[in-house]
Design goal:
Layout lengths: L1 H32 L9 H4 L1 H18 L13 H31 L8 H25 L5 H37 L15 H25 L15 H8 L1
The structure holds protoporphyrin IX containing FE.
Protoporphyrin IX containing FE binds next to helix 3, helix 4, helix 5 and helix 6.
Length: 248
């Protein structure tokens, strides 16, 4: 059990480290190579899009997903951790919607059509599923009046869809990063080498993609590990210790 907890904390530390690297890489890419940020309809406004999507739908989302796996939280009531899980995910949803506003507004200001690319189709599906999952999850697991039978029925679907949304989010990020690099690293006219010559910006953005994939793999590993799952007491709002006492 201790060995299992130690392995969990090692995986969790890796998860936090990769989160920090993701945020630093996406922020550095857009501030140092893509002229920084503004909300003025220019490319500077677009730059909020990757940053907000990575912070919201990858980093906050992934960290919110593993909250219940932290063994330290098992002895206390589940209620505060549910609120933390739902709160972090609401923040993630807020960043994602703001990230979509940045790109839709940028497209409209520059008369670029909306929702034409494969990236945008997968992306809008991801955010739509995430919003639906949050509403159904809050209605099922946070509302005190929701019956236990409904919670038991919905939970497996909620867990499966939670992992699926993270995978879709990674697919959205990889396709978006790739598309952006093809758009901006076309020729040497704007002072950069083209993509096939692997300029520093391409190395940075490719690395961001690889780190996002590594982060998601660690999160999915944590979620799928049976002995890292919170032991469920009879009354799910009670702590694990309470159940052990009851049963002894
Ligand atoms: C979970 C992450 C992401 C989601 C859900 C997402 C979603 C979307 C959506 C729905 C659009 C269409 C906007 C419109 O039609 O007006 C879009 C556009 C765009 N996104 Fe993302 N995005 C994500 C991450 C990224 C990342 C990390 C990049 C990297 C730079 C990126 C690059 C782009 C580009 C270049 C466009 C404009 C071209 C197009 O419409 O395909 N996206 N994104």
């Amino acid at each position: 059990m201790m060995g299992s907890a130690g392995a969990f904390y090692a995986a969790h530390a890796l998860c936090v480290l990769l989160s920090v690297v993701c945020v630093l890489l996406v922020a550095h890419w857009n501030s140092s190579y893509r002229e920084g940020f503004a909300w003025d309809g220019t490319a500077k406004q677009f730059n909020w899009h990757p940053v907000l999507m990575v912070v919201g739908l990858v980093v906050l989302y992934g960290n919110a997903a593993v909250v219940y796996r932290v063994p330290l939280t098992w002895r206390a009531s589940k209620r505060p951790w549910k609120l933390l899980h739902a709160g972090l995910l609401l923040l993630a949803l807020f960043f994602s919607v703001l990230g979509l506003c940045a790109v839709f507004d940028f497209h409209n200001a520059n008369r670029i059509p909306n929702l034409y690319s494969l990236h945008s189709w997968v992306g809008i599906l991801t955010v739509g599923l995430f919003a639906a999952q949050w509403v159904v999850g809050a209605g099922t697991f946070l509302l005190p009046c929701s019956p236990l039978t409904v919670r038991t029925l919905v939970k497996p679907a909620h867990v499966w869809l939670g992992g699926a949304i993270l995978v879709l989010s990674v697919v959205s990020c990889i396709s978006g990063i790739n598309e952006k690099l093809f758009f901006v690293l076309k020729s040497s006219t704007n002072g950069t080498k083209p993509y096939p010559q692997l300029p520093p910006e391409a190395v940075l953005a490719n690395s961001l993609g690889v780190v996002i994939i590594a982060f998601a793999l660690v999160v999915l590993k944590i979620l799928s590990h049976k002995s890292w799952q919170r032991p469920e007491p009879r009354n799910e709002d009670e702590g694990y210790r309470q159940v052990s006492v009851d049963e002894s």
